[in-house]
Specification:
Protein name: Raffinose/stachyose/melibiose transport system substrate-binding protein
InterPro entries: Bact_solute-bd_prot1, SBP
CATH superfamily of the largest domain: Periplasmic binding protein-like II
Number of helices: 19
CATH topology of the largest domain: D-Maltodextrin-Binding Protein, domain 2
Strand order of the largest sheet: 2-1-3-10
Structural class: alpha+beta
Pfam family, one: SBP_bac_1
Keywords: Signal
Oligomer: single chain
Strand content: 5-15%
Shape: globular
Order of helices and strands: HEHEHEHHHHEEEHHHHHHEHEEEHHHHH
């Protein structure tokens, strides 16, 4: 998530002929002639981020090749998340925008008829050939808005996943090695806590702590748990080992001082900045921070490692470019999306801390970026992408964050938090699948 996440991607397509007949997603024109036209674009990536840099170059290429102009409107993740249904159901809808993937976000909008299906564009441009099958899951939704099958409603041009950012300088000073098991990870946190430092920079007001909670559950999970939780294959046991262990561990780590109780009111931005400032030696969060840390971390050496003791990690294809059903320039939107998938644009993304999905890896020259991409490839090769904890329902993002706040505040016990989240999860899923 930046999706729940805080930073991510943008756009998709359809075409004029089918749009005129009321059918979405046609790619009838041979090319997108944009002379005298304006493509309205929304996304929430910073100009200095990997995606921001890559897409800025894509805009230049797009304007040169089509003759159209791009009108970019920067929106925050929360602005788009909270207003999408209303805005996309009006004549104020942009032509292309970055939107969060998952059942409760892109899936919900697709089921409401607010996104244009992109099947014709996928065939025309061959995007399905550029995306590994595991990365296509979040691009497709059925008529109920459940991911994994049905029509294409979005196109990701980068990947994302959660890992552990660590302060190499602090680790060396404390004599702590990079942990390769969960017990070693806990031992490292104990060392830092004993020295008076909170080991984990956290945010419970937004996604980071819920990502850690889900990651802990994944250390006790298999693929069937992920399919049940994310795809509703079977009923989720909220008293089973994965969720019981995760919820209790968050409470335990808070009691031990590994997570600050103050995190209940801290937002993701503040947690990331705390790591940048060297206030905590570790930050468990998404690859979307990578490019920013490359430019903003000045006072110490840093690196990353995959969360130890787990074959699975929160992650997926990145947030997607989607095309609203009410978009006025669908053919131009799909042309822009295709440009973002070109090797030269993917290389910009990859050399600036992003995780490209269609890059020529020989063009990735930055050593830190190689580390990021190699870790992602490790996860995808073992089929370890497990999506995000809030995806199953449209309301679960706020609910799981509230649960994490109550957990570290001590206003609810781990058992009470599990009961509350289990009921909210079941109610939300029922609304989707009936």
């Amino acid at each position: 998530m930046k999706h729940t996440r805080i930073l991510a991607a943008v756009v998709a397509t359809a075409a004029v002929a089918a749009a005129l007949t009321g059918c979405s997603g046609a790619s009838g024109s041979d090319d997108a002639d944009g002379a005298g036209k304006t493509l309205r674009m929304w996304h929430y990536e910073g100009a200095d981020s990997a995606m921001g840099k890559a897409w800025a170059e894509a805009v230049k290429v797009f304007e040169k090749e089509t003759g159209a102009k791009v009108q970019f409107e920067e929106k925050s993740f929360e602005q788009i998340r909270s207003t999408a249904s209303q805005v996309l159901n009006s004549d104020q809808a942009p032509d292309v925008l970055e939107y969060a993937k998952g059942n409760g976000t892109a899936g919900l909008l697709s089921s409401q008829g607010l996104l244009a299906p992109l099947d014709d564009a996928v065939k025309k441009y061959g995007w399905d050939k550029k995306l590994a099958s595991s990365l296509q899951t979040t691009a497709k939704y059925d008529d109920k808005g459940i991911m994994g099958s049905g029509s294409w409603y979005g196109v990701p041009n980068y990947g994302e996943y959660v890992e552990v950012y660590y302060n190499k300088t602090a680790f060396e000073k404390a004599g702590v090695a990079v942990p390769t098991s969960l017990s070693e990870f806990e031992a490292a946190m104990k060392t830092f806590a004993a020295a008076g430092q909170t080991p984990l920079s956290e945010s419970a007001a937004e996604y980071p702590l819920s990502h850690l909670w889900y990651q802990l559950a994944l250390t006790k999970a298999d693929r069937s748990f992920v399919d049940d939780y994310q795809l509703y294959k079977h009923k989720v046991d909220w008293n089973g080992e994965p969720l019981t262990y995760a919820t209790q561990t968050i409470a335990d780590w808070t009691a031990k001082g590994y997570i600050s109780k103050d995190a209940s009111g801290i937002k993701a931005e503040d947690a990331g900045v705390a790591f940048i400032n060297g206030q905590s030696p570790m930050f468990v969060s998404g690859s979307w921070w990578y490019g920013r840390f490359m430019t903003e971390v000045k006072g110490f050496e840093w690196g990353t490692f995959l969360f130890p003791g787990s074959e699975f990690t929160p992650g997926s294809a990145g947030n997607m470019w989607v095309v609203p059903e009410h978009a006025k320039n669908k053919a131009l939107a799909e042309k822009f999306i295709d440009i973002t998938m070109r090797p030269e644009i993917q290389a910009i993304l990859g050399n600036n801390g992003g995780v490209p999905v269609a890059a020529d890896t020989s063009k990735i020259t930055d050593e830190k970026s190689k580390e990021l991409i190699e870790n992602f490839n490790t996860v995808t090769k073992r089929d370890g992408l497990a999506f995000y904890p809030d995806w199953p329902t449209p309301t679960f993002y706020d609910q799981v964050n509230a649960g994490m706040q109550e957990l570290i505040n001590g206003t609810k016990s781990p058992a009470e938090v599990r009961k509350q989240l289990g009921e909210q999860y079941a109610d939300g899923v029922k609304d989707i699948v009936g």
